[in-house]
């Protein structure tokens, strides 16, 4: 009984009947089923399918009940695979399936903790996002319109990263970068390939979060916005409810990974009070101030031919009021364009430009017209660089209202931890405004919880 087992084990038939192919197929299919997309925001999922999915992923199942369904060969297989897990009857809700939520959930699940991840979005990734667009001729385009890549300097993160590389969900982007001076029209400061290693998710930036959310012991529910978090003192647990009032279950621990969880800006977006009412938690309110953010517009563009006048895969702009960076998305590993000559780019606006536009149009989701205007303005700036930029075959803008947190609140801990309510607040805003910062914060949040459960974190 010293080890816990994968949830998928309970769906499998007895080992004596199992073939390798059969088992693999079943595991994959069960993992897909555990990815529940709630119907309200996921119009593409049929009612029949979602009701079946809901039956398969009931509210917050406890690991203890799952352990009974494990047969001895399952345990042996796990032991043989070296998955020494800590037994724990605790269940944890992780709010957010961005990189901090996905890493934290995966680390906890790997040590036998039952984890349920909720995300408002239709899939995992958060700001490590990939957008699919279909052109009029039916061809599909994909853009990493959030974080374009990330770098790693911390040894612990490097260790986790090499595991992801081995899983095939991350690869080094051997890209040449430079600066482009808008005033002189010249590229400067050419970086050598590999000077600073740049990593990307494969086949998209969201691949890491997507894959981690399929880990054993973890249930991910998408299209679910946590709208209310109530601490039940007598039960010593949290009760969560969705924005539309659905009961999401009781949880011993909660990991909240978005700064909006206790922020008035949640009300600006949803018209509802933020899920976490800090006035009930004086010990927390001092630690969780309102976090200022830096917005950004991402412009996704595709060209029928490569940009011959651009000698690099990515560059930052000097002396532009509109544009800050540009990346050739189709040059990343695992992103072959069809037809092969097509090239896709993602350009980022300056914070100043994005702030000005958001001030004019307000904090809510921008209209299609407002986004078209932004796309035209940013593209006009790109064309006026003198880089001989042709008309694109596709162009669309996306707004990131809070692309980067402007402060960090986690201190040396890199997360906010309230032991009395077993609440961890993690994310890039607790460490540094980067993918690596978010990962470090997630590791810290996971180790706080594992410490309480007397599980060696080994992080
Ligand atoms: C345009 C852009 C460019 C960037 N460039 C870089 C770069 O070059 N290098 C780099 O390292 N980083 C970059 N970043 C930053 C990087 O993407 C972030 O630091 C990192 O992804 C943050 O991860 P996170 O998990 O902390 O937060 P997020 O990714 O924001 O995840 C939070 C998740 O919580 C969910 N959520 C929030 N509230 C709720 C709720 N109530 N209920 C359910 N779900 C909820 C959200 O849907 C979201 O998925 C960039 C970001 C952007 C937007």
Automatic annotation (TrEMBL):
It holds the Pfam family NAD_binding_8. InterPro entries: FAD/NAD-bd_sf (IPR036188). Transmembrane segments: none annotated. Residues 1-38 are annotated as: Disordered. SUPFAM superfamilies: FAD/NAD(P)-binding domain (SSF51905). Residues 9-31 have a biased composition (Basic and acidic residues). This is Amine oxidase domain-containing protein. It comes from Eragrostis curvula.
């Amino acid at each position: 009984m010293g080890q816990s087992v994968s949830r998928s084990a309970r769906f499998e038939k007895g080992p004596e009947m199992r073939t390798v192919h059969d088992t693999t197929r079943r595991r994959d299919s069960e993992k897909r089923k555990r990815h529940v997309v709630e119907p309200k925001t996921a119009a593409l999922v049929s009612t029949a399918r979602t009701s079946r999915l809901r039956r398969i992923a009931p509210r917050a199942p406890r690991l203890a009940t799952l352990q009974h369904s494990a047969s001895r060969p399952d345990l042996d297989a796990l032991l043989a695979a070296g998955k020494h897990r800590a037994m724990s009857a605790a269940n944890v809700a992780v709010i957010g399936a961005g990189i901090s939520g996905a890493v934290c959930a995966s680390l906890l699940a790997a040590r036998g903790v039952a984890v349920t991840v909720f995300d408002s979005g239709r899939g995992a990734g958060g700001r490590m996002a990939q957008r699919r667009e279909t052109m009029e001729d039916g061809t599909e385009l994909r853009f990493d319109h959030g974080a374009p890549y990330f770098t790693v300097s911390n040894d612990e993160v490097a260790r986790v990263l090499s595991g992801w590389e081995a899983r095939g969900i991350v690869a080094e982007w051997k890209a040449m970068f430079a600066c482009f001076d808008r005033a002189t029209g010249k590229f400067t400061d050419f970086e050598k390939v590999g000077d600073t290693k740049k990593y990307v998710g494969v086949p998209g930036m969201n691949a890491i979060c997507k894959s981690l959310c399929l880990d054993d012991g973890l249930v991910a529910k998408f299209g679910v916005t946590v709208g209310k978090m109530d601490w039940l003192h007598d039960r010593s647990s949290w009760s969560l409810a969705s924005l539309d009032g659905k009961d999401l279950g009781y949880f011993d621990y909660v990991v909240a990974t978005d700064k909006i969880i206790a922020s008035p800006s949640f009300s600006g977006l949803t018209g509802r009070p933020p899920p976490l009412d800090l006035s009930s938690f004086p010990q927390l309110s001092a630690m969780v101030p309102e976090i200022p953010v830096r917005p950004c517009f991402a412009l996704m563009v595709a060209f029928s031919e490569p940009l011959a006048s651009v000698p690099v895969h990515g560059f930052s702009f000097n002396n532009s009021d509109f544009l800050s960076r540009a990346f050739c998305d189709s040059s990343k590993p695992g992103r072959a364009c069809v037809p092969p000559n097509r090239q896709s780019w993602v350009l980022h606006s300056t914070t100043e430009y994005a702030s000005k536009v958001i001030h004019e149009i307000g904090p809510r989701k921008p209209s299609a017209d407002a986004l078209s205007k932004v796309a035209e303005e940013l593209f006009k700036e790109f064309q006026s660089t003198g880089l001989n930029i042709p008309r694109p075959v596709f162009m669309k803008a996306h707004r990131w209202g809070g692309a980067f947190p402007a402060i960090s609140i986690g201190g040396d801990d890199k997360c906010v931890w309230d032991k009395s309510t077993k609440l961890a607040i993690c994310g890039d805003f607790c460490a540094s405004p980067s993918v690596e910062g978010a990962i470090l914060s997630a590791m810290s949040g996971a180790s706080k919880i594992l410490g309480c459960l007397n599980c060696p974190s080994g992080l």
